[in-house]
UniProtKB/TrEMBL annotation:
This is Glycosyltransferase involved in cell wall bisynthesis. GO terms for molecular function: glycosyltransferase activity. CDD domains: GT4_PimA-like. Keywords: Transferase. The keyword Transferase applies. It comes from Pseudoxanthobacter soli DSM 19599.
């Protein structure tokens, strides 16, 4: 199958490190494993940080031009349209029209719907995102919280579950290196940019300040425009800043750690939490719907209320103090990811999604053709 991929949140070609793009690229890889050819059909981006009526008017005009290009007789042929992300900040303005014009199935992965945005400054974009949901033949939610929000407007026959997945093999294969009686080795992996990422680093720094009497050392992997702000949060004698590293170097860094730490402020789920678990690390993280969907509280890690530095410190202290618990959770974490969040699980979920989209599209087409 030749699949048109659209990523309205950010272009697939972006070189800025991002969990969103990593997930999109993993989808392309999994679909390729299944024998499909997935092609970025457009670089059109609809994402906006804040609502702006003037910008949105120009955006819709740009979307109309892009739709016309993709429906032109000389445009490439596709068998299915697949959009990754659709919500009020990044509604799919292209897929519904192109799929309808080309008479091909239309599927969305990682859609979300916050009903509170139906009124207020985001209302127009919310309505556009809802329009895409109505047009889609299949919609995949990546965790239960998103599924519940989508169920209000997407019927059960079109609503699928597609938990996030990674290529777990490089992480699961990394040898575990013992600390040899030294401080417990913590690792945090995250971009250093203003907003939610810096907020997560602030919670982490606050939590660690409450554990000055515990034996720990932290390695931080990541870089970005807020690096100076992040560096100033942590004691230099107990923290190593590794900077940005290529993905191929991450497994070894996890192999030289004991606990993965990340407060996960406003994280959708966090692929780095899957990577760390695949490498055999227990996780201490903030408790959000998406995080709780990939970290099993009490089994593969411990979760604290989002933004609660004291609760985060308490959870982390539990694992710092108990080496046998760290080991048990680490073993369970690796087993959990390999069983439920590896590429094989992703391939299975995508296979079901494409089959569902094709079936619903065929049924909808048949009903339309029977109309007088």
């Amino acid at each position: 199958m030749r699949i048109a991929l659209h990523t309205p949140l950010k272009p697939l070609s972006s070189e800025v490190p991002s969990g969103d793009l990593a997930m999109a690229r993993l989808m392309v890889r999994a679909l390729g494993d299944l024998g499909h050819k997935t092609v970025p059909a457009t670089s059109f981006v609809s994402w906006a940080a804040v609502p702006d009526d003037a910008r949105d008017t120009a955006l819709r005009a740009g979307a109309s031009a892009e739709i016309a290009r993709l429906l032109a007789p000389q445009a490439p042929h596709f068998d299915l349209w697949l959009t990754y992300h659709n919500y009020h900040k990044a509604p799919d303005l292209i897929g519904p029209a192109v799929a309808a014009g080309r008479r091909i199935p239309y599927a969305i992965v990682e859609a979300s719907r916050a009903a509170k945005r139906a009124t207020g400054p985001w209302a127009t974009r919310f309505t556009l995102a809802d329009g895409a949901l109505a047009a889609a033949d299949a919609v995949a939610a990546m965790h239960e919280g998103d599924r519940e929000g989508l169920a209000a407007v997407v019927d059960a026959g079109r609503l699928h579950a597609l938990p996030p997945f990674i290529d777990a093999v490089p992480f699961a294969a990394v040898p575990r290196l013992d600390a040899d009686g030294g401080p417990v080795r913590l690792i945090a992996v995250g971009m250093m940019r203003p907003g939610d990422k810096v907020a997560s680093y602030r919670v982490l720094a606050n939590a660690l300040a409450r554990l000055e009497d515990r034996p720990w050392h932290l390695t931080i992997v990541g870089d970005g425009p807020a690096r100076d702000e992040v560096r100033a949060l942590f004691p230099p004698d107990r923290v190593r800043f590794a900077g940005a590293v290529p993905p191929v170097a991450l497994p070894a860094l996890y192999g030289d750690a004991d606990i993965k730490v990340w407060p996960a402020i406003n994280e959708a789920y966090g692929l780095v939490l899957l990577e760390a678990q695949a490498a055999g690390l227990p996780v201490v993280a903030g408790d959000r719907d998406g995080v709780a969907a990939i970290v099993r509280p009490g089994e593969t890690g411990l979760l604290a209320a989002e933004g609660d530095a004291a609760g985060f410190a308490a959870a982390l202290a539990t694992l710092i103090d108990d080496g046998s618990l760290r080991h048990r959770m680490g073993v369970a974490a690796r087993r959990h990811v390999l069983a439920r969040h590896d590429l094989a699980a992703g391939r299975a979920g995508l296979t079901a999604l494409l089959a569902g989209a094709t079936t619903v599209h065929r049924e909808r087409t048949a009903r339309t053709e029977q109309l007088p």
